[in-house]
Every structure is written in C-alpha cells, then in structure tokens.
Amino acid sequence: MLSLIGLCLSCLWIAHVCDPGDRIDVKHVDVNKVFLLIDKSHHRLYVYEDTRLLASFPAVFGNNDLSDKMMAGDRKTPEGLFHIIAKRYDSRWSRFLLLDYPTPEDYQKFNARKAAHLIPQDAQIGGGIGIHGTWPKDDFVFTYMQNWTNGCISIPNEAIRQIYEIVKIGTPVLIKRSLR
Q1: Does position 85 have pLDDT exceeding 50, yes or no?
Q2: Which of 13, 104, 140, 168 is most open to solvent, judged by the fewest CB atoms within 10 Å of its CB?
C-alpha cells in the first residue's frame, strides 16, 4: 500500500506543472479523499483531493540542511509517509496538525544510524512533529524561504486555516526531499 501511494503521488506530481492557486473551496471537498504532499527542496505543500490538485502553499522547515531527520534536536524535518493524529488550535501558530512521527520505519532508520555510528549511542529519536502556521504577522518568512522550526512544517496562517478545515485524523501526509 505504501509503495502504491508513493507511485501515485509521483505520477500526480509530474502531471501538474502549475499551481491552481492558494484558495480552497472547503465546502466542496471530500475530506475522505484529501492528502498532503510536501516537497522540501521546492518549499511547497500541495493539497490533493484524490487526483485533483486543490492548492499549493509555500512551506518552510527546520534546519537549512533539508536531509532526513536523524535524531532529536537536529532541527531536521523527517521524510516519509505520515498521518495526522491530532488537530488543535494554537495560540502561537494558529493551528497545529500533529503527525505520527516517529513511525516504525523511522525507528528502523534511527536504529540503523545508531548501529552505523552515524549518531551518538545516547541519541533520542524525537517527536512532536507537525504542520502549523507562524507567529502572528511573521508570514514574511515565506518571502525569503527562511527555515526556522525545530523540524515541523510551517505554512502561512491563512493556508493552515484552510487546510485545518479539510483534513481529518488519519489524513496521509507524504514528506519528500524532492519530488522530481
């Protein structure tokens, strides 16, 4: 199932060369068909309903090194297939969508890195990764694509408000370094 989703998402990416805009008609979206696709190298979050691209938004991440998250505290954004496990309003970031990081696959990568001595033996895997807005009036970070989070995905406040309305617990989120 995971590889099928990845294949479908790759095909969708190739099929859409332009963005349809950044307004989602939230009243006419089937929330059971929504998924999010995040392209770290192009600083974009894409919102799909089944095979239809609904919107594209600028996104910033943690560390300027866009490689996969290695351990807690590295400020890197993890890569892989995740799901939204909680939604909440947030006084700092407008809305917060918590992802199910770390997944069993993340633990496998983490343990392999420890075994290969790529990270310290006492390193922790981390957690609390999600999608959120910015501090009020700080949307300027998207003009300069300034990465600033501790590993989360940050999008403009207007974007997170729209997405919050059409995602549900269980919505899939695929994060990749590059989709091309």
Answers
A1: yes
A2: 104
Q: Could you tell me the pTM of the whole model?
A: 0.87
CATH number, domain at 155?
Answer: 2.40.440.10
Q: Count CB neighbours of 5 within 10 A.
A: 13
The mean-pLDDT minimum among 9-18, 42-51, 63-72, 123-132 falls in 9-18
Separation in Å, CA 91 to CA 58, 133, 134: 21, 10, 10
Total domains, the chain: 1
Q: Which domain holds residue 151?
A: 2-176
In whole angstroms, what is the distance from residue 52 CA to residue 44 CA?
Answer: 16
Block residue for tokens 């938004």: 57
Say how far apart CA 99 and CA 129 lie, in whole Å.
Answer: 6
Cβ 121 vs Cβ 145: under 8 Å: no
